[in-house]
Amino acid sequence: MRHILLLGGTTEASALATALAERGECAVLSYAGRTEAPRAQAIPTRVGGFGGIEGLADHMTREGVTHLVDATHPFAARISANAIAAAELAGVKLLAMTRPAWDACAGDRWIRVADTAEAVAALGSEAARIFLALGRQTIGDFADAAQHFYLLRFVDAAEVPALPRHHLVVDRGPFTLAGELALLREHRIEVIVAKNAGGAGARAKLDAARELGLPVVMIDRPFIPDRPQVESVAAVLDWLDHGVVRGV
Ligand code: 3Y8
Ligand code: NAP
Prior knowledge:
Layout lengths: L2 E5 L3 H12 L3 E6 L13 E3 L4 H12 L3 E4 L6 H14 L2 E5 L11 E5 L2 H8 L5 E4 L16 E6 L11 E5 L6 H10 L4 E5 L8 H9 L2 E5 L9 E2 L2 H10 L6
Parallel strand pairs: 1-2, 1-4, 2-3, 4-5, 5-12, 6-11, 7-8, 7-10, 8-9, 10-11
The chain binds ligand 3Y8 and NADP nicotinamide-adenine-dinucleotide phosphate.
């Protein structure tokens, strides 16, 4: 009897959890515990870190995990690197389920940068009105550029002393084009800063930016070591049944 540990926190992870439940698989979805009320899932969940590579390997051995599926966000680079090493250590089969990066298309005004430091530099020194669509964890990286007005969007309410000129919206995605257009117009946004997350859940702001002719400072994904990976629920289920990635 196989036992699947699914590292979650994305739209795709939730869809996979539903498919696993429908097949009656023995599976658990894992959250880091970053949000106060994570979405309920169709399979049992666990919340909290494992305690690094060894902690994750020990957890999988203790729980009798046979398959590890990493369906975390492309910017969750640490847990993904830990998953590769822990799966090796514990002798557990590993597969990543990710989604393609977004590509700029006609009408997009993207400024591609490698990280938040380059994003700060790309904003320049003259005060502007910025939609900082990065969530909460990297806010501190913009503290030295406090001359700008920042529209922020977090999943949970929080104080933001680092950025005195800000307006905080508390909302979780997925987001809509109409909602993003209204938000950008209401706050007279001039530039958007985004992570190249891929997927459908956060892409509406890019479509809204194109419609309004706004530039987007697009942060490229961090490095994640090589691992077997697929881009669909069907491909994960096929891997579970056949033990290899068959490109379905
Ligand atoms: C805790 C689980 C689902 C998954 C939904 C996806 C879509 C909505 C879009 C913007 C960008 C951002 C942020 C975002 C999106 C989905 C997906 C996605 C971006 C939840 C969730 C958890 C988190 C953690 C949270 C981070 C933050 C990032 C907000 C649940 C809702 C900005 C990433 O306060 C904090 O500490 C928040 C931290 C990591 C990035 C950051 O640095 O602040 N996600 N997001 C997961 C855990 O504990 O393991 O609460 O239900 C999941 C989702 N967030 O099943 O419906 O699939 O990408 N999440 C980014 O992409 O830039 C919002 O506002 O435009
Ligand atoms: P990260 O920086 O890659 O990981 C930092 C530490 O958090 C890990 O070493 C691990 O702690 C713990 N952790 C991360 N994801 C976990 C999970 N799914 N289950 C158990 N522990 C986890 O992680 P992150 O970028 O903060 O992302 C945290 C969660 O939010 C993930 O579920 C991710 O899918 C989701 N998310 C992140 C983003 C983003 O922009 N980063 C966007 C949307 C959703 P230990 O070392 O103690 O095991």
